[in-house]
């Protein structure tokens, strides 16, 4: 198929965004197009920074004039012409929001439908005695009120407004007209002789005060009349507020919902009752988080045998000189106040004294309140990181991790609470919802809700996410899991005529699951949508309708279309690097002499049973390249990260996080350091970049400070820091950009009009090193900077390593917020590689091939093998066939994902895995290795 034959295309002319060289391309609509090429060749620049950015710009243009006022500040993509572009939706390979309130169910909007389903069809039970809630009559309400002790003061209230924004003047005017003289507004009794002025955009609670009386004999008639009035005004609900020890305690009574056994009244279930992000549904103990994070005395006082003087309070040690002096004064004040010797060990302090030291007293703030204050006020990532080391999460004792208040948890469908469903995996939840049956009015209400829930769950099943629990926090998802979860939300909307732009949707997918994902993408296409994928996966490329291969190299040497067309046309194009790798040409096959593994020289994990692991024991040989593989959800991350990494961190580095459940780990004496290199961002603001993260910026700044012009002006290295005042542009605080709040859209960053994005003052930029100022150096690609600083060993070594891991195309000062997960991981890898080696380090990497073209993977493998050659050990979690084949030892988990996984399916060399019939990995690996041996160069290869 050609775009001309299609006659319905997205026409792009003169695209020059970033490193694109004014390319012209026609992308067929209503088809699946893969944009591929080596890392840095311009794939994201074309897909996201050009196609998606233009789609977003056109969307904003369609908004109101209020929205359009921001358009002048939103940079348009550098392209001459784009025609035929439908509305665009981007689903990028980014780490999910780190909010603990975001879960798999909330991301996919499944939880929104579940809340509505429970509110409309759930059966409420009493959270005290577990009886089905029934309606209360006026007589029952009166009897319950008369059981209040004699001479007690009560108020009878009618709820009028609960948690709604507005001034509500009409409510107060209506009350006055009906003869009411007072109301309780936001917890305070207010006279209505003057109508209260309420904040318009704040949520308010308003109750009419119907009666105030004292419980005694003879008030029954008055009470009965007041109850009738309350229920009429409150639409069947009333509140009795009883004075107890100068405080008022509310009890709800309802004609609609009340427990027939204990008489406790309830409000009618509403969707907000089941929201842990709403004050009306969230557990009051943890505010809907399910756990509480607080400073842990055990972490603050690491060694109780030390005295305060000797540094027992670890959280108050090793700060800057000024802060340390303040803390030393605090300690002196405290010891004098309580008449204790500074030399007394913490363990020997009286309980009253140690409690006052940690939690404070009337005259002393206390260590933990002090840390709380700093934690809330500081904006320093370094300080936050250190303080976090003294905190730990504990399951909320009030809700036991359920996040919701008891009233919400007591509503059930098929004897199952909404929290219980959140503990289900996608597979279990789908089976549950398919078994639900309703009748009458409930059947009508539930029909569409169940359809929406099941369609999203079914999609997640199809893309290999069957093992994820609905309540799993989004910040624990891998990049691939997060992207496919977000894709489930988009597919659930059922949009037609949309252009979906996806960034490597196969990340984290085992080859077995790729086929199912491909079917889903095909279904999107069949529904009349255009699908554009930035992808390196061989299976996905082979099954695309159209392929665009960018290159020929990265950075400035990329940005051109080297090949485009159908699979057949790509394979036959001699200029296409992708084509050569798809044909398994001899020069594309990685060859490395395999090291012999020794299971006697290994780390052995015994009895690992965290999450879905089936009490397994496994040996991980050291001083070799070891690969953990298996289908999605088989337990790879649990075994490697939760069990092994956390246990080693605790044993070797005094880590705070508890490892996953296991019996023990032996062989730790063979290593002295463990380093996990993941895909989390290297920073969360434009201020962070590769130069600052790798610390190569320190010697660069020192180099500028040694120039003649800098010495004449008296500039030090600090002058060239954009994190402190002095040489930076104060208009943007050295960021080069300014944050612009969009109100109706996510915040965006625009170039600073004071320094034009250069970060520094004009005076600072006048000092040069080899004809370049500090801003120009930050704008250099790493490959160019490596040549520029070739004569400076401290700088050259770091830049060479960054270049070796395939990052020569990114800029030294490139914002960390613009880096993909794979790029962030390789920056971390390069940082570790540039440090001095002990030869006894264990490196752990989770899918290091993310974002890498097949050509880049060869370079990565060379570096990982170099680490092993130096005597280190490398452990990777990976699905890529080339990586698996190149490993010295492979451990395959499975056989399935979730509850059906967590076992060792096979272990050994690639040849041994390939011959294991029970291993899905073995089947696909055997096919891959056979193709390489046969060197097949056609459509069937």
TrEMBL record:
Keywords: ATP-binding, Cytoplasm, DNA damage, DNA excision, DNA repair, DNA-binding, Excision nuclease, Hydrolase, Metal-binding, Nucleotide-binding, Repeat, Zinc, Zinc-finger
Record localization: Cytoplasm
GO cellular component: cytoplasm; excinuclease repair complex
Biological process according to GO: nucleotide-excision repair
Transmembrane feature ranges: none
A GO MF term: DNA binding
Gene3D superfamilies cross-referenced by the UniProt entry: 3.30.190.20, ABC transporter ATPase like domain, P-loop containing nucleotide triphosphate hydrolases
Stretches assigned to the ABC transporter domain: 284-583, 597-926
Xref: InterPro entries: ABC_transporter-like_ATP-bd (IPR003439), ABC_transporter-like_CS (IPR017871), P-loop_NTPase (IPR027417), UvrA (IPR004602), UvrA_DNA-bd (IPR041552), UvrA_inter (IPR041102)
Pfam families assigned: UvrA_DNA-bind, UvrA_inter
Source organism superkingdom: Bacteria
Family: Belongs to the ABC transporter superfamily. UvrA family.
PANTHER family for this protein: UVRABC SYSTEM PROTEIN A
NCBIfam families: PRK00349.1 (NF001503), uvra (TIGR00630)
This protein's name: UvrABC system protein A
Gene designation per UniProt: uvrA
